Amino acid sequence: MSGIQKYDYVSRDSIPSRLIDPISNLPLVNPVELPCAHIFSKQPLVERLAENAFCPTCRHQCDENDIDSITERLFILMLEDLTVRCTNNKAGSGCTWTGPRKDLANHLTPDCPFDSIPCDLATSGCTWTGDRQNLQTHLATCGFVQIDCQHKSLECRWTGQRQHPDNHLKTCDFVTVHCSESLEGCPWEGLRSTLSNHLSTCNFVKIPCEYAELGGSQMCLHKDKRMLMENHVERCNYRIVVSAARGILAIQQQQMEGLQRSLRAEIEEVRTTSNSLFGMHRLLAQVERLKERVVGRVDGLTQRDVHVLQTIAEDAESVLLRDVLMPGNFPSLGEASQNHQIAASQEGQGENPIS
């Protein structure tokens, strides 16, 4: 019967008996009527009829199907206008609100400051529950509230739950930090985002000797603060060895560069010769075609003329080879042909044509 016990009535004894449920002895809630005209609160009646199918007042036989809701407006208004206290009034303390029963639900949500509610972030995992009036106080410290980084003004864009800011601040680039060598005497402090740049020049950072390694071999093992390393380097026993090695490496580098230049020159010479040989091949092909044309037209020529033409063709071939391989040292192809013609004319004039 919990459904009808949630109300705390003011002046309970002054409520008319016709508004009282005979079963619960409390004011009617959701009133219903049986065929015998007796009125009850619905929930207690349904529970009673499930046990005994008789009217609780007159013992008239009936069941749940015989129940009818009361819709008489005046009767309903009388019930709903009964004065009740807020359910959060606990033994005289807590909420002091009183009013018509019909207004209690509206008072409890969302007005009653004493109503017990969960945290707004219950779905995020917060298990807090308390009076509505204490919710804002709780939210001010709730670990599940989303907050910005305290360095938002410096453009940090982090947001997260209030309970985890320390994890973020351990890595936040906008937190002011001291140099990691502060215990060694470095006075620097600045944003974490600039620490690495500072350490690259910090005089208090210990660095290895510049002669610590050469060609993968370990050498000087000395480490010291950056501000003191220059003095060590000037007297380091490995300085002479490394300087000599660097000189040898420089000479080898120069030799390598000279070899590279020589190789490039030879490659260019080979490329030029290749192009010349290609040109010679084309000229020889032309000479062969010319020889074929000349041989094809020897009809009617004298034996001397044939000899002259063959000689010219052979000389032309040798001249072409010479021009490709050693240009400028011999007569041209035209000069060679003219010389042979003169020599031929000076020979015997009376030879007969070939028959």
TrEMBL record:
**Keyword presence, Metal-binding:** yes
Q: Name one Pfam family in it.
A: zf-TRAF
Q: Where is this region: Disordered?
A: 336-355
Domain of life of the organism encoding this protein: Eukaryota
- Please provide, alphabetically and separated by semicolons, the GO molecular function terms listed in this UniProt record: zinc ion binding
Enumerate the spans annotated as TRAF-type domain.
Answer: 107-157, 168-220
UniProt cross-references to SUPFAM superfamilies, sorted A to Z: RING/U-box, TRAF domain-like
What keywords tag this UniProt record? Metal-binding, Zinc, Zinc-finger
Report if keyword Lipid biosynthesis is assigned. no
Q: What is this protein called?
A: TRAF-type domain-containing protein
Q: Can you name the source organism?
A: Rhizophlyctis rosea
